[in-house]
């Protein structure tokens, strides 16, 4: 766990030992402040960096963009920094694009995210598994499930292995689209590729199966959860019980 105020104290003490902080040291402290959600302090710290003559770098601007993409009301400010980066001698990298795409998807601005994703690929800036996952999550949230399915196939064709969050996001989209059996096929694919499901994965599938009255499949998933060492909570059991009641069929 980072301790932002301790980090600042140590940073300021460096000068007491005739040790001038490097630009990397400044960016490290800036990143810690953002990571710990000390955003006002982070922007004040960045202002101080500029006042002492430190030029902006891709790394420092990426940290600021990450901070701005945490809130719906400040994403546009992050986009503004992104657009101004070339004028400051800083070319956006994969992390820059990924951070903005994640923020745009989080706040439902999927068309802008798609545009940035396309630009990223055209500029040979390779998307990471995190960026693909953000896009898949955003597409599913905007009911573009088929496009999300295609994106999963694209990332696999490029040798980028989906992780549990990627699979779970797409399963959630399929279940909400009334296609829990297709989500189950994805679940089996995930297992064969050595990616272990987590509580969110199971909860998503069981909820989707119960909603479509696929109760037997939901019960089988509960058993698989237990075999994996994951303990279903009362809410999951309740959904299965309600599902049985809805179809008036008990084992």
From TrEMBL:
Pfam family, one: PPR_1
Entry-linked Gene3D superfamilies: Tetratricopeptide repeat domain
PPR repeat feature ranges: 22-56, 57-92, 93-127, 128-162, 163-197, 198-232
Cross-referenced InterPro entries: PPR_rpt, TPR-like_helical_dom_sf
Gene Ontology MF: a single term: mRNA binding
Entry keyword set: Repeat
Record bears the keyword Mitochondrion: no
Domain of life: Eukaryota
PANTHER family, per the entry: ATPASE EXPRESSION PROTEIN 3, OS10G0484300 PROTEIN
Family: Belongs to the PPR family. P subfamily.
Protein name: Pentatricopeptide repeat-containing protein
Source organism (scientific name): Noccaea caerulescens
